[in-house]
């Protein structure tokens, strides 16, 4: 696989300088599953300053681990100095056996926890489940996430630990929850993952999320795609919770841009439930947001426009943004000799609506006349 060949360039560079270096964790798991990896992690005996000196393009991460991001052929690699004092120790500190494998530059597997066997048996297992899950309770949510992505069964001992310890998930940082939740949400075996959340009562303990059995059952019936955008996922989540704005996402510390984008879709969605698209509602919503809304409607089993139908309406709207309007606030001031004030905003909006609804041509003289008549 090309991804691994490229990562091997980094291993070779480190090896040539006498450092140990291995691809580890999810990338090895995905390689053995013949799946493309979201990201590639490398561990090495080299120290961060040594890593930085060997690669021209690097970024130092400010995390608890000693990680340097290396950029090579426009891919990013997280290169981390061994957490413990050896590879073995590093691997045993990981969450699940299937995530505890390493591979050297020649493709030899280093697998002290028997991860390959569990991978073949489609099994999620931790070597020491009590310690692993209680040391970092997010790992319990990661178990559900991997159930969702891979459809693997959860080992009985691990399951018991989750059943009796889920409440400590409360202490986990919401930013970490949001990332795992999205992956869980998009997984093709989401139904099994939601079952696990319900059966273990884990859903009651996930900080930042508002979940109950009804919400989980509704979500599990939706045909969400693995490649769904984050904004569509969060909008669907809000809709299933039946909220009319995205404030609920603030407790997950999501970016304000994302929350604004979700809000646009929620506002448009509720507008759309009341009426079909008109020139004006589509113009205000914009085509991309409207396409997402129609797509979300189809996910929710509601009648939806096709993308091409929306494009047809959009194509017939004379302008697609305020900047295409043939007059500006300056034109209005020149024309009227009035003082600047809120009336400008009001008139520009009126002109915009007139153009969008085909009541006036998008032409300066026509618009100024039309506004003149409107003032009387
Ligand atoms: P993805 O496919 O989403 O990248 P991943 O398993 O690679 O999944 P990452 O967050 O990229 O997840 O982490 C990389 C590796 O680091 C994991 O495979 C695992 O070995 C280890 N890891 C990540 N998070 C934890 C954790 N909370 N506790 C223990 N080990 C972890
Ligand atoms: Mg990864």
UniProtKB/TrEMBL annotation:
What InterPro entries has UniProt attached to this entry?
Answer: Bact_CCA-adding_enz_type3_sf (IPR050264), CCA-adding_enz_C (IPR032810), NT_sf (IPR043519), PolA_pol_head_dom (IPR002646), PolyA_RNA-bd (IPR032828)
- This protein's source sits in the domain of life called Bacteria
Q: Which cofactor does it need?
A: Mg(2+)
EC number(s) from the headed UniProt entry: 2.7.7.72
- Please report the stretch or stretches of sequence annotated as the CCA-adding enzyme C-terminal domain: 229-371
Gene Ontology biological-process annotations: tRNA processing
Gene Ontology molecular function, alphabetical: CCA tRNA nucleotidyltransferase activity; metal ion binding; nucleotide binding; tRNA binding
Start and end residues of each tRNA nucleotidyltransferase/poly(A) polymerase RNA and SrmB- binding domain:
151-209
Q: Which Pfam families match?
A: PolyA_pol, PolyA_pol_RNAbd, tRNA_NucTran2_2
Q: Where is the Poly A polymerase head domain?
A: 21-125
Q: Which UniProt keywords apply?
A: Magnesium, Metal-binding, Nucleotide-binding, Nucleotidyltransferase, RNA-binding, Transferase, tRNA processing
Entry's family note: Belongs to the tRNA nucleotidyltransferase/poly(A) polymerase family.
This protein is called what? Answer: CCA tRNA nucleotidyltransferase
